[in-house]
Amino acid sequence: MRIKIEDLLLNEAKKLPFSGQENWLEPIYSFFSVPRNQQRPLLQGSFCLTRSENFVEVQGSYQFSPFIPCSRCSELIQWPLTESIKINVLLTEQDFLPERNLSKAELDEYYCENRQIDLELILNEAVQLALPTVTTGLSPENPSACPQCHTENLRDCIYSSSTLAEKGRNPFARLKELKLSE
Fold it and tell me: For residue 23, what are the contacts with CB-CB under 8 A and spacing of at least 6?
């Protein structure tokens, strides 16, 4: 969903709720699988946009429980998210200047493109960044085990690319075997 800057009145808040049925949410839904016999979870929330002279403040919150693969067994587990969003969108078009160091404040700012604010982009980024990189479901019967594969979560290593024979071997041992000319 794109909002034109001209549609926002100076210093007046514009509230934009979303129920999860909107078409502009489809690109976000496309990142998540849904198990058979399950309904697609809805992404619900609202935005509040307030325009000032130099930027538009975008505040909002959302609730979403997407299905994501367990990092241990790859079964789909539901991961509930309840997050808030607060960013600034600068009204000046971003100039393509030579590379430079950004200040901390500039790292949290977005730039408007074609005098529009893309709320789908902002929401998609917020959802993707809220998801952990390693996910493991928790079993109600045994909180230290995955409910699908029953692998203990407290183990140091779940998967390894090396064989058991290689695990105890010093990685630098092969260097001693090399015959190098002096």
Answer: none
DSSP 3-state of 161: coil
Q: Are 127 and 81 in contact (CB under 8 A)?
A: yes
**Mean pLDDT of all residues in the chain?**
80
Give pLDDT tens digits for 128-164: 999 888 776 666 677 667 666 666 666 555 555 555 5
27-69, pLDDT tens digit by residue?
Answer: 999 999 998 889 999 999 999 999 888 888 899 999 999 998 8
Rounded Cα–Cα distance for residues 83 and 63 (Å)? 7
Helix, strand, coil tally for the chain in percent (to 5): 20, 30, 50
Q: Given the structure tokens 């200040």, which residue do they identify?
A: 103
**Within a 13 Å sphere around the CA of 133, how many CA atoms are in the beta-carbon half?**
0
